Amino acid sequence: MLKLFAFDLDQTLLVHGSIREKNREALRALQAEGKTIAFVTGRVLRSPQFLAAQAGITAYCVGSNGSVTATPNGHVLSEHKLDPQTAVKLIQIGLRHHVYFHFYSQDTLFSPYFYPEKYEHLLAADTTYGMRMQCNIHIQKHNDLEKGADQMLKIQYSAGDDLDLQNALMREIRAIGTVAVTMSGKGLVEAMAQGVDKWHGLKVVADHCGVQPEAICAMGDYLNDCGMISHAGVGVAMGNALSEVKEAADMVTGPFDAYGAAEAVWRLKEEGRW
Question: Phi and psi for 245 in degrees, rounded to 5?
Answer without folding.
Answer: -70, -45
